[in-house]
Amino acid sequence: MSVSENDVRHVATLARLGLDDGRVQALVGELNGILAHMDVLQQVDIGGASLDPDATHGLRMRDDVPSPIPLARDREAFAPSMRDGFFLVPRLATHGTAGAADDEGEG
Amino acid sequence: MTDVPYQALLARSAREVASAIATGDLPPHAALDATLAAAQHAQVGPEGLNAVLWTDAEGPAADLAALTLHPDLPLAGIPVAIKDNIATHRMPTTCGSRILEGYVSPFEATVISRLRGAGAVLPMKTNMDEFAMGSSTENSAWGMTKHPLDRTRVPGGSSGGSAAVVAAGVTRIALGSETGGSVRQPAAFCGIVGVKPTYGRVSRHGLVAFASSLDQVGVFGQSVDDAALGLQVIAGVDALDSTTVHVPVADYRAGANDDRAQPLAGVVVGRPTEYFPTSLDPRMRTLLDRAADRLRSLGAEVRDVSLPHTELAIPVYYIVAPAEASSNLARYDGVRYGLRVEGNDGLRGMYEATRSQGFGPEVTRRILLGTYVLSAGYYDAYYKRAMAVRRLITDDFTRVFASGVHVLLTPTTPTTAFVAGSRSDPYEMYMSDIFTATANLAGVPAMSQPIGRIDGLPVGGQLLASHFDEATMLRVAYALERALGAEAHT
Amino acid sequence: MSAASVTDAYEMVIGLEVHCQLKTRTKLFSAASASFGDAPNANTDAVCLGLPGALPVLNRTAITLATRAALGLGCTVHPVSVFARKHYFYPDLPKGYQISQFDRPLATGGAVVIGTLDDGSPKAIGITRVHVEEDAGKSIHDRFANASAIDLNRAGTPLIEIVSEPDLRSSADAGAYLRELKLVLEYTDVSDANMEEGSLRVDVNISARLKGVETLGTRTEIKNLNSFSGVERSIELEFARQCGVLAAGGAVEQRTMLWDGARGEVRPARSKEGSHDYRYFPEPDLPPLVLAPEWIAEQRDGLAELPAAKRARFASVYGLGAADVEQLTVSVELADRFEAVAAAAGDAKRAANWMLGTVLAAVKTRGEDVASHPVSPARLGALIRLEAEGAVSNTAAKQIFAMLEVEDADPRDVAEREGLLLVSDDAALVGWIDEVFVQMPAEAERFLGGERRLQGVLVGAVMRQSKGSADPKKVNQLLAARLG
Ligand SMILES: [Mg+2]
Ligand SMILES: [Zn+2]
Predict the structure, then answer these.
(1) pTM attached to this predicted model
(2) What is the Å distance from ligand 2's center to B476 Cα?
(3) Cβ–Cβ below 8 Å for A58 and C290
(4) C18 and C161 Cβ atoms separated by less than 8 Å
(5) How far apart are CA C181 and CA C195, in angstroms?
């Protein structure tokens, strides 16, 4: 398998990486160079191998008691843009305030 | 109390100095002073090795002032250098990346609070490949780190800054992090000891994630004992990391003062043939043979074993690690913290400008690779398959250790420290992890210790053990270190 | 063709995805408070903010509640389930992924019964799966000019997503399914399940196909619904739209539609369904969730009585009609209160009438919940007994009830004090009758002359004379007696 210029653009969009045409060109070569070494995996007989994550230790759970990880400094101290306690982002033009449902993903 | 010149003090083991401070034989600031003097002398800053990114002038002094000395404070007054991807709230945590420029974490990693609780002081954060993606510490937004013995060469990576600081004699102990060999490989290149604990042995709370199923905090030491001491303090289950496991932490120093003639009697050391390819530098083979002979003379049985899926480790690793990285690095979006570049096209523009200007070329490459192998239509062929083969690699280890083998002996790296800029092809660079990535994929503990030199450059011997058996691994390491003596550095 | 006859040719196929907020004190993966109405981002810690190095730690109570809900919906809860990361970029999704469950959900294979089919068999709507996931934060677009405001207080609060099979065939089906689902979630006490407050969120998957055709048509998804009526209305509109497209020989486009409650219309969202690639993979920060079969069994045994079972019991044990049963079981509180009153009154039918009539009316005007109404089941039971004995009239009983709302006293004492006990001793009654005969000589004359129809008029007059305290039965007997 090998990636095309369109694959790289599509993946860059999914990953929200802005790439100029030059970078895209270069990356097609770099990624194919790397992926060529991965093809060996297609030949491996994985018959025996389980695909489920290892459940031997299971998942520890915590009690439902409020004890947030304390923050040594205010959100304002590290947030790029805040007002009235809200994080600010460039205006999202939406019909209604469906939020994620209106643009990406789901609720 | 007598003040000691810093070289002499730094020549003593962390444990010796800690107990001298804890019992009042040395002033609390003695070790810190020595480290600061040594840092000056070794030029660890940008003017020299560029191994140290950030320093904390007040914090350590304040900690020492607040320190209530009691004899069982294992790291009383001992300075420990910290990799820049471990959250500290007095110094920045940037992961060597522009996207976290100036970011100071509002909370502290569990390993950091455990070190401070043990009496350690944290005077510096060390350079690294951006988000730990690299094997040379050339991929740092803050410039490459140079090898302490030869400034034209790389110290290895991604924890190259911590390795260089310890190798330069500035601290006895430093923390790094491992995903595919990022502690063992630079330890080998720099001629020091580097330990990667079992996955789940040390808390990742506060370790900035690269590949969550592979990441583990690791420890550098100038000696096996320094590394064992550091590990002893940070090991153990943590309520804030669901992947830590409740397995009792043994005494990692059991082998420290075992001066019997045959301390390794009954220990079986396996030599996996796949780690000794015909292409291996014969001089490196000779050094490993010497190490094996020493182990035999210490009473160990050395036998050849096979880990048949070893050659698949790098392809598997370079699917799994980038896939998880593409997910873990999605949070750097310019909304809540870190770099933000407005761009010209609303939210989408801000995202793309921030991330493309914030991440360096290697990180960008891996995010794209990882996104690709997870994307619709490729998941099964790449990620799912890689995870299945990963299970086969794990089974290899399980089988060998079940067959009565206690530890494995291999080279840590295929080569010694290479010249900066000499590895331009990404995959060629990835191959420097060929002997180390397996332990991360299988989750087993592994370590590197110096076993000699080639053309004056250090060579590392790697020991691997079964899950949560760091104790046996370290016992063998202690014995080998003692048996090799000065040979380890010649 | 008229719009009606166009839709007549088609059958609607609906499946619902319901997101339900679980009643926990803290978030699903962090110990930050899950309470609402606090200052923006006040309830966010390192985990909620997705700070570098923060890791998820699972809330046990969330899993207990999710398990209870799943069992209440008749699902199989699996001993091993796996959390997975679902990726998309949006400012109210701090990590760039939502921790959810994908190919190994908590529970699968349940059903909700929404009445009976023509052949009398139960009409069951299949539940495909119930999985656990974290909520996103809130994006507020109308607060600041040219900036959207992000509040992450809701980010990370625990949700269950309940996915139904495409078994629903009408907006009425959908309404019935949602009402029953809401009841189960309330009866099992896992959620407030309030659509208006957003603790219950519904997405509709709807497609149309020619009647008799087996294969499913292309579906659209309706989001942004905030009321049951909105759900039913939007289904009607979208179905009609799809039928129109199909009847005109067009093809329905798979996409997301948005319900605009204010305008009462359904319109396409900007982005198309197809453009998403969520890149799910198992969450490496969380080992698989392992639940002991014994524990799951415990949860099943400890489950509260479910709505269907309660209805059946009320019908059989109390012999109540379907309508009464339906109304008495709309909430656990009302059902419990009814049972207490019925026990005290020793008469379930009267108790039911009182609860559904006077009590609910009083509760409504007082604007409080039935459980906290001041007239205790014991007092109300006693009052109902008085009425049943004929010691007070129904009118008087209602007056006494009103008095009991302000003073906690024995109904009989109140009745006596207020002279509301029915007088049935002849002397007093004869006295009143004589007075009435004096006041109304003409009517008395004609009645005694044989005009029996005037008896009602005279009884009324006697009741007035006695200020309602006379026992009408007795009065009738005495008047009848005078005719000799
Ligand atoms: Mg969904
Ligand atoms: Zn969902």
Answers:
(1) 0.93
(2) 51
(3) yes
(4) yes
(5) 12
